[in-house]
Amino acid sequence: MTIVEIGLPKRLVELTLDGESVRVPEGATILDACTASGKSIPTLCYGDTLKPANACRVCMVEVEGSRTLVPSCSRKVEPGMVVRTDSERTQHSRKLVLELLGSATDLSTTPHVDEWMSACGADPSRFGPDAATKLQPTIVDNPLYVRDLGKCIMCYKCVDACGDQWQNTFAISVAGRGFDSRISTEFSTPLPESACVYCGNCIEVCPTGALSFKREYDKREDGTWDEEAQTQTTTICTFCGVGCNLTLHVQDNEIVKVTSPHESTVTHGNLCIKGRFGWQHVQNR
């Protein structure tokens, strides 16, 4: 007989969220409370499989009694807390952050960003063309994935996934300071010469498309990438006996990329090089 340890039940914490009473388990964040109550909070650096980085500042909310706005992705709820997610102050902050990001970064492949900007009236073009940072190169130095640095918002999610939170490869880190900050390999060596093991877990967590499958990049370049036409099928990887879950993204009867369900107890969204990239043989390429 197998005994499953379910742990002690968590005490519920009651707070007021935009005028409504909400009860969530102790230890939950404000973002968890918003999700549970059906409120959509924009966020870019938050990852459900990573520790909060508090880098993008898009998810800031107003907490009664707090001098400054607080990041909803990391601030834990407290009994009696009064939170406002859609006040004039939060809207102004969100608008400014999105405008600054949009004026300096290519957000064309960032999901939901257009609707976020529309909701808060953000207009990145108001800073003028001179506000844009210098054009960042697109690096294609391997056949598996592409680094489009012009889309990077320095959210650190790829560094965390490659580092001590998941892969423990430490192939990439933040180099430079200020406007020269960038995600880089050690001494800026080409990716094939670095410590990278091509697990692709950095691609899994990238929120803007700065990291993408080579196949996806090529299809976007020639204008044939169509997510609406793609189907997703979750199956089990056959390369070994671990039992990793694979979600196959198929367009025109062709696998165009592979992800993994974040809720999987085996992978938590992570894969190895075989699971992430070893599907070309299916199409006999």
Summarize the SSE layout with pairings.
Elements: E1 12-17, E2 20-25, H1 30-36, E3 60-63, E4 70-71, E5 82-84, H2 88-104, H3 113-120, E6 138-139, E7 145-148, H4 157-162, E8 172-175, E9 182-185, H5 201-205, E10 211-213, H6 214-221, E11 231-236, E12 245-251, E13 254-259, H7 273-277
Parallel strand pairs: 1-5
Antiparallel strand pairs: 1-2, 3-4, 3-5, 6-7, 7-10, 8-9, 11-12, 12-13
Helix pairs in contact: 2-3
InterPro entries: 2Fe-2S_ferredoxin-like_sf, 2Fe-2S_ferredoxin-type, 4Fe4S_Fe-S-bd, 4Fe4S_Fe_S_CS, Mopterin_OxRdtase_4Fe-4S_dom, MopterinOxRdtase_cofactor_BS, NADH_UbQ_OxRdtase_ferredoxin, PSI_iron-sulfur_center
Domain 4Fe-4S ferredoxin-type: 187-216
Organism: Lentzea miocenica
Described by strand count, sense and barrel closure, the largest sheet is:
5 strands, mixed
Strand order of the largest sheet: 2-1-5-3-4
- Helical stretch tally: 7
Poorly predicted runs of 5 or more residues: 1-5
Structural class: alpha+beta
Order of helices and strands: EEHEEEHHEEHEEHEHEEEH
Give me the count of strands.
13
Instruction: Indicate the radius of gyration in whole angstroms.
Output: 21 Å
Helix % is 10-25%
Q: Report the end-to-end length measured between terminal Cα atoms.
A: 47 Å
What is the mean pLDDT? 90
Strand content: 15-25%
What is the 3D form?
globular
